C-alpha cells in the first residue's frame, strides 16, 4: 500500500532547497503500554532540544532534550501483496542503557514509537549548546506512529521491528466472534428484534416471538441480510486417508 503523509507549506519549501538547513530524524519510544513514559532520541552527534509530546502523542510547543545516538533505520516497507508497512530501528547497545530499558519493560512489545522528521532550523531556539534551531516551529515536523512488533538484542545494538496498528493479525477484535449462529439473536438484552436484528421493525413479534439464531430462522422472517453469523464456517469436517 502507498505510504502517504501530510506536510505543511513550510516543510515543503525547505525540502526543495539545495542549501542551508539539513533534515533531522528523531525518535520517541513510549516505555508505557497504558500511559506515557517517553524516551527521546535523535540521530545526531550531540544532544539537542526538540519538541515534546503530550499524553495523547501530539507534538507541542514545549521543549525537551533528545539524547544523541547513531541510530539506524531502514525505509518504510510495503508490498503489492497487501503487506502492512513496517520499519526497523536500530539503537546502539554498547553501554547497555537501552538494554536495561527493554528488560525492565517486557521488551516494549506492543508499545508505540513516534518517528519525527523535520529540518534542524525549525527546532527550538535558545542560548545553550542543545538549541540548534533558528526559526522555531513545531508545526513543520512530520510525526508518524508505529508499534513495536518484535525486538532483537545483542552486544552491539537493539533492533525494534515496528509495524502500523493496521496489522491486526492475531489480534482479538472486541465484541465480535466467528460463529454460525446470529450474534444479534443471542445477544443478552436488546438482541432479537433489536436495532441490529430488526432495524426497520419489519418482524412481527406475535408471529415470531423468539429466535434460536439459526440462518433458517432469518429466512422465515425474510431477514437474511441482517443475519449476524458466518455461515461459511463448517459444522463438520470429513477427512479422507
UniProtKB/TrEMBL annotation:
GO cellular component terms, A-Z: host cell cytoplasm
Alphabetized InterPro entries for the sequence: Phage_lambda_L
A GO molecular-function annotation: iron-sulfur cluster binding
GO biological process, one term: symbiont entry into host cell
Name of the protein described by the UniProt record: Putative tail protein
Organism whose genome encodes this protein: viral metagenome
Upper taxonomic lineage: unclassified sequences, metagenomes, organismal metagenomes
Amino acid at each position: 500500500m502507498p505510504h502517504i503523509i501530510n506536510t505543511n507549506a513550510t516543510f515543503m519549501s525547505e525540502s526543495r532547497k539545495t542549501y542551508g538547513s539539513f533534515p533531522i530524524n528523531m525518535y520517541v519510544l513510549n516505555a508505557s503500554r497504558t500511559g506515557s513514559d517517553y524516551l527521546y532520541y535523535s540521530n545526531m552527534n550531540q544532544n539537542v532540544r526538540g519538541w515534546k509530546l503530550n499524553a495523547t502523542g501530539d507534538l507541542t510547543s514545549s521543549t525537551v532534550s533528545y539524547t544523541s545516538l547513531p541510530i539506524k533505520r531502514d525505509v518504510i516497507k510495503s508490498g503489492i501483496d497487501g503487506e502492512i508497512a513496517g520499519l526497523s530501528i536500530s539503537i546502539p547497545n554498547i553501554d547497555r542503557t537501552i538494554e536495561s530499558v527493554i528488560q525492565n519493560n517486557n521488551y516494549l512489545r506492543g508499545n508505540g514509537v513516534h518517528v519525527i522528521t523535520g529540518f534542524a532550523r525549525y527546532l527550538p531556539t535558545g542560548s545553550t549548546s542543545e538549541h540548534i534551531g533558528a526559526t522555531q516551529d513545531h508545526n513543520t515536523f512530520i510525526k508518524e506512529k508505529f508499534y513495536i512488533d518484535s525486538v532483537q538484542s545483542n552486544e552491539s545494538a537493539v533492533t525494534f521491528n515496528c509495524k502500523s496498528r493496521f496489522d491486526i493479525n492475531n489480534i482479538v477484535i472486541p465484541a465480535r466472534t466467528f460463529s454460525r449462529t446470529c450474534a444479534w439473536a443471542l445477544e443478552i438484552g436488546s438482541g432479537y428484534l433489536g436495532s441490529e436484528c430488526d432495524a426497520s421493525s419489519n418482524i412481527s413479534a406475535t408471529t415470531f416471538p423468539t429466535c434460536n439464531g439459526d440462518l433458517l430462522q432469518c429466512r422465515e422472517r425474510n431477514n437474511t441480510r441482517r443475519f449476524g453469523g458466518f455461515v461459511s464456517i463448517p459444522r463438520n469436517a470429513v477427512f479422507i486417508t
